Amino acid sequence: MEWLSPYSVTGDDISEAEIPLLDDVVPCSVDFKSLPSVRSKSGSWKSATLLIVVHMAERFAYNGISSNLISYFTGALGQSTAANLNAWYGTASLSPILGAFVADSFLGRYRAIIVSSLFYIMGVGFLTLSAALNSLSYSDCKSAGNDTPCSPPPFQKIFFFFSLYLVAFAQGGFKPCVQAFGADQFDNEDEKECKAKRSFFNWWLLFTCLGIIVAILVLSYIQENLSWELGFGIPCIVMCFTLIIFLLGSMTYRFPVNSDQSNPFVRIDLVFLKAAQRNCFPAFTAISHEQEDVGKDVEDAKEILRLVPIMCASLGISIVQAQPSTLFTKQAATMNRHVTSTFQIPAASGITKKPSGISILQRVGTGLFLSIISTVVAAFVEKKRLAIALEYGLIDMPKATIPMSVLWLTPQFLLSGIANVFAMVGLQEFSYDQVPSELKSMGLALYLSILGSWHRV
């Protein structure tokens, strides 16, 4: 038996005793053994809940690495700017397109998640090793009494960036596939499951945000106050458990059946190619009756194009959402973060709220508006921070602590988080629903990539 490929079942493959009741069979779906999916034993919340937990754990691991990288770059690595960090964020944001293409064209979502997880574990493991090596080099440098700032050797920097980019590409294959696979567990033809799928995206974001909050609060504190090796090592352990949890649910998953075995990207590209031929060379384009019979392919191409206006309109908010992990974190690092005499808030900490049940366009529009307000508030706070720094003669002392409470950053973090939630739920649901069944991963990948700086969620 071929392993989940080509996801097709014929009458010769199963015995009569194995055929479930027709009203308990999920159309266009098979189980792990390539048999018809039984509604009462597979999919829906049984599988979706497990996948939500898997994604929550992965977001914990990813944000445990990414949310405080600006401090590692400017501290342990001795980087003077955030240019390298922004380049990594950009790669992490665009990599879902590559991951979704491989999943939808070759591997399938299930196997793409497994392969991505393995590379993920390897990348985070290398990252932990790199932090340990950098720590040893820094200790040796300090022991030697060098007057110049200590920086890791070039080879260790190369190894660090290799590890970091391996994580970026791995999460690019993991993130769009696991969400699309989670939504695949609901049958659109069943009214109850169709309604549940609409709630799935709300619960998805809520539990994802819980993972992010824990990562930012706990791991950022560990990285700044204990060690970077432990701060990177915990995400590695979490990703190992994430893969195990995902595999344990294999027998409950539903796998969509692709009745057309051709590559969906090839089919859609042919639609655009034929349209261009007809428009540019009408006299030389010979069209047979068979070539005209591409109605489904044309509809698939139209569904992809429907994503473009909404995604273009959402580009502005992606710029705003880049600020919490760069500007906001650096602002916090210069402020008084002490809650008590012995405990201080990590510079990378923020706040996020859960979404409310409103329409897709209302969510997106509200998110766009609040992102603008967040930027305006951040500008006023930065103006006051610089004024205080100037007043106390600290303007040219980037490592000095300004006598200004970090709580001044609460409004901009809060507004940024709420804007994120409002627009996020609507856009991810829109991106999943408006593409053909064979391209669900790509739909979510386009949404993740166009909103590039929403790398956390």
UniProtKB/TrEMBL annotation:
<dbReference type="Pfam" id="PF00854">
    <property type="entry name" value="PTR2"/>
</dbReference>
<feature type="transmembrane region" description="Helical">
    <location>
        <begin position="401"/>
        <end position="427"/>
    </location>
</feature>
<dbReference type="GO" id="GO:0006857">
    <property type="term" value="P:oligopeptide transport"/>
</dbReference>
<dbReference type="InterPro" id="IPR000109">
    <property type="entry name" value="POT_fam"/>
</dbReference>
<keyword id="KW-0472">Membrane</keyword>
<dbReference type="InterPro" id="IPR036259">
    <property type="entry name" value="MFS_trans_sf"/>
</dbReference>
<feature type="transmembrane region" description="Helical">
    <location>
        <begin position="199"/>
        <end position="222"/>
    </location>
</feature>
<keyword id="KW-0812">Transmembrane</keyword>
<dbReference type="InterPro" id="IPR018456">
    <property type="entry name" value="PTR2_symporter_CS"/>
</dbReference>
<feature type="transmembrane region" description="Helical">
    <location>
        <begin position="119"/>
        <end position="138"/>
    </location>
</feature>
<comment type="similarity">
    <text>Belongs to the major facilitator superfamily. Phosphate:H(+) symporter (TC 2.A.1.9) family.</text>
</comment>
<dbReference type="GO" id="GO:0022857">
    <property type="term" value="F:transmembrane transporter activity"/>
</dbReference>
<feature type="transmembrane region" description="Helical">
    <location>
        <begin position="360"/>
        <end position="381"/>
    </location>
</feature>
<dbReference type="GO" id="GO:0016020">
    <property type="term" value="C:membrane"/>
</dbReference>
<feature type="transmembrane region" description="Helical">
    <location>
        <begin position="158"/>
        <end position="178"/>
    </location>
</feature>
<feature type="transmembrane region" description="Helical">
    <location>
        <begin position="87"/>
        <end position="107"/>
    </location>
</feature>
<comment type="similarity">
    <text>Belongs to the major facilitator superfamily. Proton-dependent oligopeptide transporter (POT/PTR) (TC 2.A.17) family.</text>
</comment>
<feature type="transmembrane region" description="Helical">
    <location>
        <begin position="228"/>
        <end position="249"/>
    </location>
</feature>
<keyword id="KW-1133">Transmembrane helix</keyword>
<protein>
    <recommendedName>
        <fullName>Protein NRT1/ PTR FAMILY 5.10-like</fullName>
    </recommendedName>
</protein>
